[in-house]
């Protein structure tokens, strides 16, 4: 683009650039600025107040020698694996179910997607009541006559993490359904007619043909769910508070506790920087496959 063409482009789009300027400044100053500031603080000895000294990677060494942080990472890996797997399978099955042009399709689609519209705080509170041994499932079944019935996962250190996963799946599977349903609605009907003529079983069509065609939706789904896992905080605080003990501790709660309760800015920013790198590693393949690779073609 030569200078004259560039000047014409600026004149035609001057108002658009002016309108976008406040948001651009917000992104670069409020988001990018604070992000780099946090990374910088992770290399200092800051505690209650920020400091400008440089201590190298000592905060990161302290971080990874903390058992609570290691436990939070282990919990995050467990949540990530089960949450992604269950959400994807359940969401895909729901999408296939609705794609059959069933009656009251709008009703079922709204019901399945409704949990995603709720905040994680509300989701956590609702499921905390359901799993509470004194209020929820256990209490209800015992009042029906089965007094020996036990369902106290939320106070069991070995099982509490699965209660968080159940609540998160309940909320997140609707998003998977909506995204994959949009992809299924884009499949040409002639494809289905051809597979029926060839006598290919429906399950084989979905696994070998439909799922590869839904690759862009699947990538988007995995990225969105992965980011929601990394910043998972509200549902854990509402349901378990990270307990019993630290059995359901997650990195986001570890960061918030050190930042506001323990007044340890250095450790908190080091932990947040680790999670930032994790998010970038998740987003990078998505950006490359959907933008850079396509432009290279």
What do you see in this structure?
Keywords: Cell membrane, Membrane, Transmembrane, Transmembrane helix, Transport. Its main location: membrane. The protein is mainly α and 297 residues long. The chain contains 14 helices and no strands. Helix 2 crosses helix 14 and helix 4 packs parallel to helix 8. The longest helix is centred in the N-terminal third of the chain and has 32 residues. 25% of the residues are buried.
Keywords:
flat; 14 helices; mainly alpha
**CATH hierarchy class name:** Mainly Alpha
CATH architecture: Orthogonal Bundle
Query: Distance between the terminal alpha carbons, to the nearest Å?
Result: 21 Å
Structural class label: mainly alpha
Radius of gyration: 24 Å
H/E element order: HHHHHHHHHHHHHH
Q: Pick out the low-confidence regions.
A: none
Q: How many structural domains?
A: 1
Q: Considering the protein shown, what is the CATH homologous superfamily?
A: MetI-like
Shape: flat
Number of helices: 14
- Residue share in β-strands: under 5%
Helix-residue proportion: over 70%
Total count of strands = 0
Subcellular location: Cell membrane
Main location: membrane
Pfam families: BPD_transp_1 (PF00528)
InterPro entries: ABC_transporter_permease, MetI-like, MetI-like_sf
What is the structure about, briefly put?
The chain is an all-alpha fold and 297 residues long.
